[in-house]
Amino acid sequence: MTTTEEELQSFNVATAVAYVGYDLSERNLVVRGSPVEELITAWSHQGTKNAYGSASAATIINNIRADLLPAVHDAVTARQLTSVYIPADQLINAIPVLYKVVNDRAPVVFHVAINSTDLSPVLAVRQTGVTLLPSHGVQDTHYTAILSHLIALRTRLPVVHFYDTLSQDTRQYAKIRLVDYKRLGQVLPNQAELVEKYRSGNGLEEVDSISEQLEASSLYINRSATIEPQQIANTVSIFLHKELPTSLLPQTKSFEYTGPADATDVIVVLAIASPNLEKAALENGRTGVVRVRVYRPWSDNEFLAALPKSVRRIAVLDTSFDIIATAACGPLFLDVAASFHSATWNHGVPTIREGRVHLVPAEGYATEVVQAAIAELAKDEHGPFEVGTAAPADSTAPKVNGKNGSSIDPESTPEGPYIKMLHQLFGDRATVANVATESTLWGNNAGPDAPEANAEFGFGQHLVQSQRRQRFINEVASIVKDPVQSDIPLPDTLRPILQKWLQYLDDPAKSTQFGREAADILASPEVWCRHPSLTRLHQDSAYFTTPSRWLIAGDHLAYDVGNSGVHHLISSRENINMLVLDTQPHSTRTSDQRRKKDIGLYAMQYGNVYVASVAVNASYAQVLRALMEADAYPGPAVILAYAPHIEKPRKGSSLPLEALKETKLAVDSGFWPLYRWNPTNDDQPFALDSAKIKKELQDFLDRENHLAYLVNTKAQLDPYITESAETELSKGVEKEITASYNALLASLNTAPLLILYGSDGGNGETVAKRLAGEAKQRGLRPRVSPADAVAVEDWVKEPSVVFVISTAGQGEFPGNARETWKQLNNATALAELDPSRTKVAVLALGDRLYWPLPEDKHYFAKPGKDLDAKLASLGFAKLVELGTGDDQDPDGLWTGVNNFRSALWSALGVDNVEVVLESSAPSDDAIKEASNYLRGTIAEGLADTSTGALAELDTKLLKFHGSYQQDDRDIRDARLRAGLELAYSFMVRMRLPGGVVTPEQWISVDDISEKFANSTIKITTRQTFQFHGIVKGKLKPSMKEMNRHLMDTIAACGDVNRNVLCSPNEYSSEINAAVLKLADDWSRHMLPHSNGYAEIFLDKTLISSTTGLTEEHEPIYGKTFLPRKFKTAIAVPPNNDVDIFANDLGYIAIVENERIVGYNVTVGGGMGMTHNNKKTYPRLADVICFCAPEEAIKIGELVVTIQRDFGDRTNRKHARLKYTIDDRGIEWFKEELGRRLGKPLQAPRPFKFTTNTDRFGWIKESNGLYAYTFHVLGGRIADTPKQPMRKQFRELAEYLLQNKAKYPSTHFRLTANQHMLLTHVPPTQKAVLEQLFKELFTSSEKKTLLHLNSMACVALPTCALAMAESERYLPLLLQHIDGLLHRHGLENEPIVMRMTGCPNSCARPQIAEIAFIGKAPGTYNMYLGGGFDGNRLNKCYRESVGEKEIIAELDVLFERFAKDRIIGERFGDWCVRAGIVKATREGKDFHD
Length: 1488
Description:
The chain is α/β, with parallel strands linked by helices. Helix content is 36%, strand content 16%. The chain has 52 helices and 47 strands. The strands form nine sheets. The chain has a seven-stranded mixed sheet with strand order 15-16-17-19-18-20-21, sandwiched between helices. Helix 11 links the parallel strand 10 and strand 11. The chain is globular.
């Protein structure tokens, strides 16, 4: 069979398979992931004809379980020659298809691409009745592919052709000889006849004229008869040896032997192995190789005939490790061994060993691997051996069969956090039985159809491991039996340990304890070599530990609960846990999702199954509790875990943030309730861990016999928790209907006016409500609502509709108007609407300078303008022309609003009505003055259970008590669309002067976060704690809990002196104590005198008078308190770690001879501003004087009273002390202070700051004690799969409390940079704590200094002012920036970087060397050039940049800085020196 160069063509292995499969098939079924997918689909799309002269159809199989069987059935029914192309890791899912095709006697060819060195998925189908043909290399694969189709026609049975795609020589292109299909009919005269017989459905009853030797044993018998493998083998053998012309294909045998005729050693291997095997064996001289080309049907006689009669040792090389792990031996080894028992061999049975080969994918059977196998074979030993660089230990313990998740990156996949938590909770005890090769759980893309996702697969793995452990237990029991009757030489120390272990073999802790002791003794060769039983114990010592067995699968199981394996597991009563992951985002679900079954509900109906529904992004603690309860439950457990997979994040977001938002939507809507069902709790099996519950689940609970319990459970639920989303929605609708009806009765004779607004920041809503108030005075009947709360088909029935639309982001609609805009662009939805009956008017609000670049001018008021144009195009008549309100006008947006008002009232015919225009709300000073010293109606509002919110005016007063009302902006739009109240909650900030917290208080703080808040703790930039997510019903109890532990929230917010910052300068204990005392004294001195806090939140007795008002006064603040917030800080040079110049008032300690001689006083600092409003700006404080320690409080009080008396009370954006000073001059301020002090001010003393960062690690204090600083990114202390930080700090606090005698004064200190110290550590305990830190804080990730010096405010989703993400986005951005720093060698450069979601600047970004201030979702202004010591403001470098631009800009800047900097130069200083930005000399030129 000679070939010329012209006849050769370059193919790789995928092309070689596709070429044959397409040409010899009429139907091509391509399973997603097959390497031939692109070729087959392209040829089919182009209409390329096959060898039979017709175009071959191609179908992509996305879901192998759901789609492959119907597709194959259609092809077989149509009698089409069919090829199936499938990755090996999905072949197990095709087993039902293989059985069906065998039964149908259809010549379907399965071309299987081997994508793993483990052949278990292919060999697992060996007993289905198919023919199995392996191949390796491009030419061999081409030939074998043709053989597969020819054999399939002759046996009328499916053929599985599996070929290597991993080795380098198979992926590369090689010149091969192609077979001319036109010659098939010439050299195989019966070929066309066989094809025609199959197409016509004939032939099975005929005798095969080709193989006369088979006669009555012909394979062509009635299809109901039993198919004998030997008959198939004979048919294949006759075809290969006698019918197949060598002119078409090279001579092929079922078993090919290569090597000496007198070889004593023989290696048996499947033909998928590379030719390196034969080459290395021939070099050995005495070793031969049998290459198995037809693995099924297996012919014992042909195999034995292929062996040299001189063979004495056989090594069967196998890579099917998953099968070996469960069956002890590989299938090829069993076939070889069985041949010597089932056939005649008269030359002495050789020693047969199994060689388990660990291959490097790209290298295959490398020479060193083959040589190692030959060397093992020559040892003349018994039992299996292992070769290859990845060979594991000899033990067959659980870790071989499943992965425990220790290497999982929780960020890589949606499922990763759950796997990480299994590892954290159960360590080596955890085995994931159904994750044995590849799965999405491990970062690959096998998908839900991978065999490892099968519940049956994992359940079978579990049963095997359970049986093995039981055998292990039995062996231990037999070993420790009566020593008189036992012949096992057991060490005296081992017997009692094994007896103890048998007593506690199912106890996780004690079985591990005694098991380790036993394993340590057995590890000695002197022990395990004494007896084979001890050897087995040593090899399988991992079975000493009580396993925590888990199956992990996707929500595809929910489509057929009864047949997916779920039913078998939950009805088995086996002690196994199943984690079912639902990865489909809630927002992408459609009506067809209803065919999915609720696995949790299905399992609960069995009664003896533990069930939980969890979501790690909703409640980490609940997931932990559910996992631990499932592990402890003595029976089957099912945990439904929500893990939404996000394909692509929306603009301004990221994958983790989108997953978090999807989880919130699912839980908040009641679609994914959080609950636990534990049958061991006879009294209360059901626990609801979220506020909502699905109707189906509620119906089930109502049917349960535990009705009395459930009634109690409902009674115990907090009253603000609604039972179901349906109930809440219906109540809301009923309430709205009632209100509308009452309003209708009251105003039958007035004209209606519907005012719809779109507003994120509140301006649009304010304007809309003010228009409504005026409309009512003019005799109209106004109704005000967010635009999305009224459907388009409803408002088009109104005669007059006014839209007030603010601008969000880059010309985007606000969140509560986006749905309206979508509906107006939906042609189908608008088809039946009649615009002729409605007149409309649009008022568009914006800021023309918010996007200052010329190319961005069109963003100004864009959504309002777009809406006006759209309404006009739809045929709506205009009441008035488009109005615009511009923040840059002389009166702000009200200039345009007033012009629009006049035109609107004229168009409605009510312009002649006299009205009294009032402000939309009383001024803040008026609210404070009328509040009865900050009481307002807060107490009454807290008692009102009809809403989760407080009255608007009370929310302003609530700030003085340390709390802000917020709502969850992640789910705001969804709730508005559903007609539900916003998800209101409260932020609570503690007052902790200097950030001091005892271990007892820390435990209380942790309890509060879990019991009342969202299970996280936030360290703020004000050196205190913040709690988020506290609902109204828990607000008062949380503050009571703080009070019980000597903590409070008084004056943590509001127009008062807020929490006092104090440098945790642990170098000098004496100085630290002095400044900390000043911080506490100043904080107490400036507390409001009102008893309102105690009355409202602590239930203290009211102080009454005959007038009914309290007899109180505020000697410093007065009834109206301060114009705006007031911040104080105390710093100790050289560390400016409190950013002293960013505060209204500051004290800089002047130290001489190791003691404080006084303080330099600073005034007028503040960072808040408004984008593109040059009247607002950040300002650094001025150093105005020096004062003695005893004068500090007095001078501070006078500074406060000056601001009280002269601060701007008409414009809150201009009300901070910094504007008071700039309006009147710093010299005026100093004179006024001196006048009130009664003496001239002393000149400031010299001082020098060097840094405004924290000092991490250990610090030795002057009194010999130590302090340790922990890094807390973004100040957020939370439990995550990557690091359970809250749990770690809790355990540290508990340890300190339990060992208080050793740590008498040790306590925690928060820093103003959002980190934390452990201070006053005795030197004798330093080493002990170091070891404890290693055990508790397991993260070993080394961070760049920029990473350590970064800060972020909370921003979204709770802050009402946030324009972009901050705290949630910072870690993601840092990953990119850290990479840049490493690239340019700057990882050890201490650069300060800060991020905020808005220009109010809680994280003080304007004094950072690099800063990002949010402007819109995913968009930030980028600032550079701040001083490293906090004494210089930065400057805007780039406006409106996203992540891509940020990374690109920093990459260039870091490269320049690394090359151009001088020794010791800081990045911010370099930015100014290099001319990147101009230096900002004072606040007024910040925007220049």
